[in-house]
Amino acid sequence: MTEETPGFEEKPDVPSGATPDDAEPKAAASSEEEAAAPAGDTDPTVGLTAQLDQARMALSERTADLQRLQAEYQNYRRRVERDRVTVKEVAVANLLSELLPVLDDVGRAREHGELVGGFKSVAESLETVVAKLGLQQFGKEGEPFDPTIHEALMHSYAPDVTETTCVAILQPGYRIGERTIRPARVAVAEPQPGATPAAAKEEKTDDEESGGTEEV
Fold first, then answer.
1. Is the confidence at residue 198, as pLDDT, over 70?
2. pLDDT at 177
3. pLDDT tops 80 at residue 61
């Protein structure tokens, strides 16, 4: 039989130069590192994903801002161009309005056969210039009266018209594009009150002639 020495207990091996108490903290630290290792491996991935989402959101916001600014700039350019064209048209219309009395004098001189020599050359050059600026003359005898482009200065009745008609052009009208600078000043004639229009008279006469020759 082996006799055990009272009070003697076996202890784990401890490296030389280390006390028994040093073994327990090392074992505890090793356990904490093993437990923290799995969590540490997933943290970088989650962080990168979050940063990527933030970058995409920021890029989307910047893109929307850029598109909005580009649309505003395009609207600004169109508005400036439209205003520029309007200002130009108004300036040209004002200039040509001042020249209308001169053009009226040229027209009267032409009607009376006085447009000859150097005066004729100057008048034709003036008419060419205003035509290049877009000035158009309108108003002809026999056309229906339109109060939007005609100004009636004289009024009469005529048996040979079926509607209010311009029978004389006292002053021609002028326009630039769709803008009327001056309406045509005209003399108009209306159908005679109670009179039968000429076309109806002709039809009635034809019917009477055919009825008179019809055999019963």
1. no
2. 86
3. yes
Buried b (16+ CB within 10 A) or exposed e, 99-122: bbeebeebbeeeeeeebeeeeeee
Q: Is the pLDDT of residue 200 over 50?
A: no
**Under 8 Å CB-to-CB from 60, ≥6 apart: which residues?**
none
Burial of 11-42, coded b for 16+ CB within 10 Å and e otherwise, reads eeeeeeeeeeeeeeeeeeeeeeeeeeeeeeee
Q: 166 has which bridge partners?
A: 188
Who wins on pLDDT, 58 or 2?
A: 58
Q: What is the DSSP string of 157-190?
A: EETT-SS-EEEEEEE-EEEETTEEEEPEEEEEEE
Q: Is the whole model's pTM more than 0.70, yes or no?
A: no
- Please classify residue 139 by burial: count the beta carbons closer than 10 Å to its beta carbon, then call 0-12 exposed, 13-18 middle and 19+ buried: buried
3-class state of residue 124 by DSSP: helix
Over residues 70-98, the pLDDT tens digits come to: 999 999 999 999 999 889 888 999 999 99
Which ranges in the chain belong to alpha helices (H)? 23-111, 117-132, 198-213
DSSP string over 137-153: EE--TTSBP-TTTEEEE
- Alpha-carbon distance of 190 to 166, in angstroms, equals 9
